[in-house]
Amino acid sequence: MSIANEFAARADELIEAGRFIHSRGWVPATSGNFSARLSDGSIAVTVSGQHKGELGPEHIMRVDEEGHSLDGKKPSAETLLHTSIYRRYPQVGSVLHPHSPSSMLASRLFGHELVLEGYELLKALEGLDTHETRIIVPIFANDQNIPRLSLNVDEYIEMHGDIFGYIIAGHGFYTWGSSVKDALRHVEALEYLFDVEIRLHGLK
Q: Which domain holds residue 88?
C-alpha cells in the first residue's frame, strides 16, 4: 500500500474515532487531538482548532517524527505529546487525547496518580489478561509549555516504567494502542474506570 493510501485509511479511522468520542461528550468544542503512525514513520494527526465530531479528510495532516508539518497545515499544539509516545513505544500505532469530564474530575480528586486495581475491564488494555492486576495512571499538572510537559511524561515513564495512559490535570487524558481501534478501546475502558473510581469516592 502506498503512503498516500495508507494515510487516507488512517485518516478515515481517525475521523470515525472523532465522531464516536464526540458522541460520548468527551471532546467538547474543538478540544482533543488524535493521531496514527504510518509505516514510513510519519504521523497522521488532526489539525489545530477543528471540532473532532466534524472531522473530514482535510482536517487530518501529516507530520514527521519530530512533529514538523509535511503538508503546510498547522498541527495541534500538543503534537509533541504524540511524537514522544511514538518514540518510546515502537509498537504504538495510534494516540488519542479526549477531554473527558471524568478524567478532569479524577485529576481534581486523586492528586498525582490514580490507581486502578481488580477491575475485570482492565483486560481491555493491551497485554493484560486478568483482573488481578494493578495499574497506575499518573496525573501531571497542566502546562502550556508542551516540550516541558512532554519531558515530564517521558521522565516519569523512565523512572516508574511503562504506563497505559496519563491524565493532564483539568485538561484530559492520553492513551494509545497498536491501532486506532485498540487506542479507542483504551479510551472507552479508561473513561469508564475513571467514572467508577469517582463514584466510589462519592463525587457522583
A: 3-200
